[in-house]
Every structure is written in C-alpha cells, then in structure tokens.
Amino acid sequence: LQNDHKALMKQVEEALHQLHAREKEKHARDEAEALAEAMTQNQSLPQAFAKVNAVTPGSPASISGLQVDDEIVEFGSVNINNFQNLQNIATVVQHSEGRPLSVTVIRSGKKVHVGLTPKRWAGKGLLGCNIIPLQR
C-alpha cells in the first residue's frame, strides 16, 4: 500500500510538471500573439466618430484622463458602426451613471483606453466634457 502511494504521488508530480510546462509555453505564445496584434493595430487605427473639444478641470472626464482633441473610437457600446448622432452617447452616459464606461480614443496617433465613470459633480452634465461628431 505504501509503495502504491509513492508510485501514485510520483505520477501526480510528473503530470503536474508537464501541465505547468505546457501552461508556460501557452503563456509565451499568447504574449507573442498579443504583441503581434498590438503591432498590427498600431498600423491600422480604428475609425473615430467623435472628438472631445473641451474638458472642464475637476470633472469626471478630466479625472479619468480624457483630453481635448482625443478622437473617440468607442464610447461604451457606441462605435463607428452604430453611431448615428450624439444622442447615442448621451443615452449610454445616462444609463451608466455611477458605473465605469470603457472609452477608447486615438491620442497622438496611438490607441488609448480610458475608464470614465459618469456621475454628478459640481458642474453641469455627468461628464464635464464637450463631444462633437466628426464629419467624414
């Protein structure tokens, strides 16, 4: 019985070593793929549909790191494919009060992700920034 236990534990140990070795290889492959994807994304930046033309200091937009001249690629669920007018963004903002929104912008030719939480603050609106549609 003791010998069976030792043999079994040895098999478990070997299996664990193999498992971890495979995980390590997979992780290295995933990292290489992510790097390659990031490289290709830099060449083909997604299309922006709107632009930030004002950010009030101390506002939720300012605190999140949104900047003037940021071109908006994704605002929560709104993107180039489903954007019709600024009312789309207003609706997303109203439904997301107090909850973080994922906003993707193009800043100086690079894709930047910003976490923006619409909320009540001293100024007007829930964001404290002005967004204009881009004419394409």
Automatic annotation (TrEMBL):
Q: Which family does it belong to?
A: Belongs to the proteasome subunit p27 family.
Coiled-coil residues are: 5-42
Please name the source species: Aptenodytes forsteri
Kindly state one GO CC term assigned in the UniProt record. Answer: proteasome complex
Q: Which Pfam families match?
A: PDZ_6 (PF17820)
Q: Which InterPro entries match?
A: PDZ, PDZ_6, PDZ_sf, PSMD9
What is the recorded name of this protein?
26S proteasome non-ATPase regulatory subunit 9
All copies of the PDZ domain together span 17-109
Assembly and binders = Interacts with PSMC3. Part of a transient complex (modulator) containing PSMD9, PSMC6 and PSMC3 formed during the assembly of the 26S proteasome.
Relate the protein's function as given in its record.
Acts as a chaperone during the assembly of the 26S proteasome, specifically of the base subcomplex of the PA700/19S regulatory complex (RC). During the base subcomplex assembly is part of an intermediate PSMD9:PSMC6:PSMC3 module, also known as modulator trimer complex; PSMD9 is released during the further base assembly process.
Judging by the UniProt lineage, the source's domain of life is: Eukaryota
